[in-house]
Amino acid sequence: MSGLMRAFIRRKPMDKSETETKLKRCLGVVDLTALGIGSTLGVGIYVIIGTVAAQNAGPSVVLAFAIAAVSSIFAGLCYAEFGALVPRAGSAYIYSYISVGELMAFVIGWNLILEYVIGTASVARSYSGYLDSGLLDNRIENFFKQYLSLPESKWFSSYPDLFAFALTMLLTVMLVIGVQESARFTTIFTGVNILVILYCIIVGSFKIDFHNWNISPNEVPANQNAGKGGFFPFGIKGMISGAAICFYSFVGFDAIATTGEEVLNPQRDLPIGIVLSLIIVTIAYCGVSAVQTLMWPFWDQNQKAPLPYVFEQVGFPFAKNVITVGALAGLSTSLLGAMFPLPRILFAMAEDGLLFKFLGNISPRFKTPVAATIISGLFSAIMATFFNVTQLAEMMSIGTLLAYSLVAISILILRYKKEDQTEFGAVDAIQSAEYTESRTDIYEGSLFSRVLNLSNKTSPDSFSSRISLILIGLTCFFTIVFNVLMFFYEEELYSLKVPLYALILLIVTLVIIIGLYICLQRQPKITPTASFKVPFVPLLPLLSVFSNTYLMVHLEEFTWIRFFVWMVIGFAIYFSYGIVKSVGYLTTEERNRLSLDSPAEEILPEED
Predict the structure, then answer these.
(1) Domain boundaries in the chain?
(2) pLDDT tens for residues 276-333?
(3) How large is the C-alpha radius of gyration of the chain?
């Protein structure tokens, strides 16, 4: 059992001096920023704004996007530090493998695979729908319904969308050919998308009416649900609920972090690309949502293509085609942004032995993971063919939020872990899986004095690292408890009618969290040598965990069931293959000495 536990927590060694990669380095700041913007600035602008405004937040959708942006920026800053510190392909999978352990890394990587597959499929289906309704007068849908209709079912769409299939496979071929070519495609289409968004904001500004932010319920048709009117027609709760939906419009910036081995100067370019793309996307979302809700009543924006619909209603029908072109450009880059990181995560996991070896093969000609790209593209194309956007959207959230939370926790672990000297002579905070140093002078003073660091130590030792790890775990646990309590008593909190016992529970939990935070803040921590460092540690990573888990507890029951089923499949692969074939925790020298065909007994840790 102890050998199995050591397998769970074994970590990938990180050699900062290692710069060799099998992938081609060709991406700069412009490419990365365009990839980040293109990955996020699509469905959110052209679909989500109208849907959230009509069903959840009303005009306060502007604030909903701002709240979602804050949560995303928290995660983005954590990603930026890791991207600078660990310039490797694999995103949150690599980060958690280096700092947390192999089992947690597999959980993160396995969920990111599903999230990117679903993201690709949903954007492909949205692209097909927008093209069909915007330019082709629903001819695609009518044709397939007439000749290839499917039996009516809540599990599948009413017809197989072969256009979405063909589109996904076309972009799969682009990714196989090479990242530089596909990055050039992303940059061009992102530029078109941004120009059209600016066009919407500027032209739409001539038709704004501030009365649309203060609509009375009496002005709304009887068959429409417009809440109580005003800026918050569905209350503060509706606005926060809308923010939870808007959050998923920001998912995609982490595609930048998966390109670490293909970036010319990863320590500098990765953090700049992540932060810059998030800032631009936030400005675009808030600007378009403000103009769109000022142009036309929010209750009439729940349309298949809400943005061109609004312009048509205010007397700008000529803008419909312009916006449709921008939508298709934005959805094109979103599709590529969703597909781009998927084969690279498969490549990273296969190279570490956690997934099947052939997925890590690199084409000598194109310098890309061909097998991983084709298989992931085919899987996404099949899902885009047989599932509609709503069905796909219901399955997109939990893995991404879990990955963001784990990245934030990994930042905390790295900052408070004792520095160890690596075999390369570099200072590395995460090389050793166990504390092996002499215990002399570790237990100086009482436990109380060590927990509060009354001696004002400035450098972590083994004991302070253990204390910090416990404090991080307890803080995250009570944060989840607090969010669960908030979820069950949300309506009472917003109406200021919280039962006394619930109020006491909330206050006690909050006091415990504050106390744990103070103790963690007092612990000695290292100063990372990366070119970008998350500010205000431990506050900012803990805020990221809080915001992500708050959204997670609001996910539907079906999402949790899907998560459970997917993880059962993943654990079956890990325990039957990955735990035996894993070589990710070995150093480069050890990998060179070890044949991948070694028996399981030579790879698994020995039992005590």
Answers:
(1) 32-396, 418-525
(2) 888 888 899 999 999 999 999 998 887 777 888 898 888 888 887 788 888 887 787 7
(3) 25
Q: What contacts 255, CB < 8 A, 6 or more positions away?
A: 35, 36, 39, 91, 337, 338, 340, 341
What does the block give as tokens for 342?
A: 């998927």
Read out DSSP for 206-259?
Answer: GG--GGGGS--GGGS-TTS--TT-SS-TTHHHHHHHHHHHHHTTSTTGGGGGGG
The tokens for 446 are 């009482």
Q: Is the pLDDT of residue 429 over 50?
A: no
Give me 562's structure tokens.
């899907």
Determine the average pLDDT of the residues in 255-265: 68
Query: How far apart are alpha carbons 472 and 487 in whole angstroms?
Result: 22
Q: Residue 130 in contact with residue 330, Cβ under 8 Å?
A: no
> What is the arithmetic mean of pLDDT over 201-224?
86
SS3 content of the chain, % helix, strand, coil (to 5): 70, 0, 30
What is the token pair recorded at 141?
Answer: 């849908």
Least confident of 59-63, 230-234, 252-256, 505-509: 252-256
Helices (H) and strands (E) in the chain, counts: 27, 2
The 10s digit of each residue's pLDDT in 43-69 is 788 878 888 898 888 899 999 898 888
Q: How many CB atoms lie under 10 A from the CB of residue 135?
A: 13
Element (H, E) at 116: helix 102-134
Closest CA to 300 of 202, 239, 212, 209: 212
Q: Which helix (H) or strand (E) holds 420?
A: strand 420-421
Residue type at position 430: I
Determine the pLDDT at residue 19.
44
Domain 32-396: which topology? Amino acid/polyamine transporter I (1.20.1740)
pLDDT reading at 484 higher than 70: yes
Give the span between the Cα atoms of 161 and 143, in whole angstroms: 10
Q: How far is the C-alpha of 342 from the C-alpha of 358, rounded, in Å?
A: 15
The closest of 204, 393, 365 to 295, measured between CA atoms, is 204
47 CB burial (10 A radius; 0-12, 13-18, 19+): buried
DSSP string, 48-105: IHHHHIIIIIGGGHHHHHHHHHHHHHHHHHHHHHHHHH---TTTHHHHHHHHT-HHHH
Model pTM score: 0.78
Tokens representing 95 are 């980060």
Q: How confident is the model at residue 191 (pLDDT cuts 50, 70, 90)?
A: confident
How confident is residue 598, by pLDDT bands cut at 50, 70 and 90?
very low
